[in-house]
Design goal:
The protein is mostly beta strands. It contains no helices and 15 strands.
Length: about 140
């Protein structure tokens, strides 16, 4: 079954977010640094749900970038995957592509998400953390 395509939203993290390190997108190098950075995050709740988010940050001071494609791969057997709609990312902006919240159970360690971001025809990959855990009732 194909996953839905979703739009980009604002990002506001808290202690329920478990994010991997930012990865520099190789197609956005402008001396002296890369301008698009992205990472994979897992968001958990106390009801036994989890979702993955592709977080993209444009650190360029003036130029926007066109994100051709984004993808989130997360708990695929439970329906947590999603395609991210093509979009422009203005200078200085951070946006997230949110996968659906899937029921994984309490005290569960979800798989680390994999995210992909395509810019200028080049797809780069980032991975999330493995230490996320949904809430427990102890």
């Amino acid at each position: 079954m194909a996953s839905d395509t979703v739009g980009w939203k604002t990002v506001s993290t808290n202690s329920n977010w478990y994010c991997g390190a930012y990865v520099d997108h190789t197609s956005t190098f402008v001396y002296p640094s890369y301008k698009i950075k992205f990472k994979a995050c897992t968001v958990v709740n106390n009801s036994g749900g989890a979702q993955a988010v592709l977080v993209v940050q444009n650190t360029h001071l003036t130029n926007g970038y066109y994100m051709e494609m984004g993808r989130v791969v997360f708990e695929s057997q439970r329906g947590g995957d999603v395609w991210c709609a093509p979009s422009n990312l203005s200078a200085g902006m951070t946006r997230g592509c949110y996968g659906p919240t899937v029921p994984v159970g309490k005290c569960y360690h979800p798989i680390a998400p994999k995210v992909e971001l395509k810019i200028k025809g080049n797809t780069d990959v980032a991975y999330g953390r493995t230490d996320a855990e949904t809430g427990c009732d102890f």
